Amino acid sequence: MKKVLILVAMLLSFGLAKAQTIQSSNYSTTGYIKSDGTIQNSNYSTVGYIKQNGTIQNSSYSTIGYIKSDGTIQNSSYSTVGYVKSDGTVQNSSYSTIGYIKNDGTVQNSSYSTIGYAKAVDKKWAAVTFFFFKFN
């Protein structure tokens, strides 16, 4: 009985740690964002990290930016590169709209053309992945 409980706990843990898929506009998988903020490419190689405190790192753990609680996105020098509003609107540092992250995970450019999908991914994390920092 004890072994069964341990096995069930392990399976549940693996299920909860499942990565959310990042897809292109034609639904091909381009990467994954795990619940711990690890960003992987389509081959499951780690290309970056988004830490719980908002620090964005590349695969070598070098800080390349920050996500502030108010949606401000900064580079490693703390210069603002953009904003993610609570409604999913993504703006550059000049407050021009560059895209949208919809509630269903659809990612659109400023012309409302779908450029990808990030279902069940935090809007700020999706915006960083699609618009601000290149992780590959």
Please give a structural write-up.
The protein is α+β, with helices and mostly antiparallel strands and 136 residues long. Helix content is 18%, strand content 40%. It has 2 helices and 12 strands; from the N terminus they run αββββββββββββα. The protein has helices at 2-16, 123-132, and strands spanning 20-24, 29-33, 38-41, 46-50, 55-58, 63-67, 72-75, 80-84, 89-92, 97-101, 106-109, 114-117. The protein has a 12-stranded antiparallel β-barrel. The N and C termini lie far apart (45 Å). The relative contact order is 0.16. The model is unreliable at 1-17 (pLDDT under 50).
> What summary fits the major beta sheet?
12 strands, antiparallel, barrel
Instruction: Specify the overall morphology.
Output: globular
Number of DSSP-assigned strands: 12
CA radius of gyration is 16 Å
Question: What share of the residues lie within helices?
Answer: 10-25%
Helix and strand composition category: alpha+beta
Report how far the terminal alpha carbons are from each other: 45 Å
Number of discrete helical segments: 2
Mean pLDDT: 86
Order of helices and strands: HEEEEEEEEEEEEH
The proportion of residues in beta strands is: 35-45%
Q: Provide the spatial order of strands within the biggest beta sheet.
A: 1-2-3-4-5-6-7-8-9-10-11-12
Poorly predicted spans: 1-17
